[in-house]
Amino acid sequence: MLKKLFRFSLAVSVFSVASLPLSINAEIVPGLTNNGGRLSFYSAFLHDAYVRSFSYFYIPKNSIQPATNYPIQAKTQWCRNGQIKKDTRATRLTEIEKQVSSQPGWFLVNQDDSSYQYIKADSPASINLLKKVCSSYAEVSSPY
Fold first, then answer.
1. Which has more confidence, 100 or 128?
2. Domain span holding position 132
């Protein structure tokens, strides 16, 4: 009986892992969004001296595939020394962006690098995504 249960668990685990959109080196962060979706960290890079840019995927509730084929581009000033902390030295944000971003989160970015929507990090998944972005930035850059 125990062997059958183990084989079933192993089969389910292999099927579940094989179905996830990880072939693109994206990492699903723990937790769910407020609407039950998942977030998958893709990459982080330096936007300017103090604004961190990153890309991620959104995986809707009850789905194993991202909502889009391309990663969502974003930027945040909420990383300092590898932690979620507002970096007041960020200079490439407009005055409106600085006012809107009073809570931890990020801006979605258009192709022309103009931001248009602020996403508050107010769910377990969004907080964990922001933690991943901040820690990834700390690993590849000198401390500011």
1. 128
2. 21-140
